[in-house]
Amino acid sequence: MPVPRETFLSSVWRDGIFKDKVLFCTGGAGTICSMQVRAFVALGGNACITGRNAEKTEKGAADIASVRPGAKVIGIVADVRDMAAMEAAAERCATELGSLDFAIAGAAGNFLAPMSQLSSNAFRTVMEIDTLGSFHTAKAVMPYLIQSVQKHKNSGKEEPTGTGGRIIFISASFHFRGQPLQAHVMAAKAAVDQISSSVAMEYGPHGITSNVITPGPISGTEGMERLSTADARSVKESKAKIPVGRWGEVKEIADATVFLFSDAGSYVNGVVLVVDGGAWRTTGADMGSTWKYPGFFLSGAVVEGVKGGKKSKL
Ligand code: HXC
User: Fold this and answer.
1) Pfam family of this protein, just one (predicted)?
2) Is residue 257 part of a domain?
């Protein structure tokens, strides 16, 4: 069943901007990553996606390829925890598709568990998938990304052959403030953010850019299925606490990806781009029932006793 274009891509992007370029994405059959890859392929590129489950990965690749006639998308079975497997996957991608110009380190593992129920092996498993896996991905793709940016220079001018040599790591915002039941993920994603910083510093001189995309709560994703309750009232309350008042759409992560890979993102390096409607800034922001977020801001009420504090008009 073809996915309608408006569900994974805004109409603001120009067709063909990734023509003849190749994206390598770990965990590429997942709900968020598959839409990022789909957007890239819709805009002219080809791709390799990796995953541990052969059936899911191959089906994911075929689904994504259906987005554009002539698109090539290869599904490769590989575990990000295995460095040799990642090197072999990157080599196969570059050989079969002719280059490897962009990468997304997207493979992740998550489940809700308090530390009291988290075994050493459970903690290690998520650290190995998210953190070690991101490190392996960066190491495996870097020789090819460097070759790409030598051909498609990151000069700040609009290069005739477009862009190349860019990597995005997918992270989470739990470690910005703290999130119960996510000790393993907070540790793993904080480390992922820092791996991206190291890539930005150490490979930036070669022309590479490295950035993190931090999705907030995105509708219809495996992450939200695992992490949110099915209870409609709490979902409503969770949305109300987000400054823009809603969960995000997969397309909003794909759009951020296209921005960072396109000429529009050429001078963006070493950042954490949080695409969450402002959610992480307000999580837990209620300071008692009087100033409940966001009702207080919508009610017209004032905080009494603020020195010199006259309420200005909206
Ligand atoms: C406590 C758990 C557990 C749970 C597994 N473990 N699930 N402990 N609570 N719910 C423990 C196991 O008991 C075992 O420890 C250890 O973790 C390893 O489990 P395995 O099943 O052997 O591991 P593995 O097959 O490698 O599976 C990895 C996994 C699994 C992370 C546990 O869930 C997985 O493959 N997930 C991949 C897909 C995924 O999670 N996607 C969601 C990404 S969403 P013991 O001690 O028993 O040996 C995401 C978004 C976040 O990251 C941001 C959203 C806003």
Assistant:
1) adh_short_C2
2) yes
Identify which of 104, 90, 131, 92 has the alpha carbon closest to the alpha carbon of residue 33: 104
In 3D, which of 213, 294, 217 has the Cα closest to residue 248?
Answer: 217
Contact 136, 80 (CB under 8 A): yes
- The answer to whether 189 is a known catalytic residue is yes
Instruction: Tell me the pLDDT tens digit for each residue of 61-76.
Output: 999 999 999 999 999 9
For residue 266, indicate whether it is catalytic.
no
Give per-residue pLDDT as tens, 216-234.
Answer: 999 989 888 777 766 777 7
Q: What is the reported pTM?
A: 0.94
Instruction: Specify the CATH number for the domain of residue 174.
Output: 3.40.50.720
Alpha carbon of 110 to ligand 1 centroid (Å): 5
Cα 186 to middle of ligand 1, angstroms = 14
Q: Using pLDDT thresholds of 50, 70 and 90, give the confidence band for residue 27.
A: very high
Range of the domain at 191: 14-299
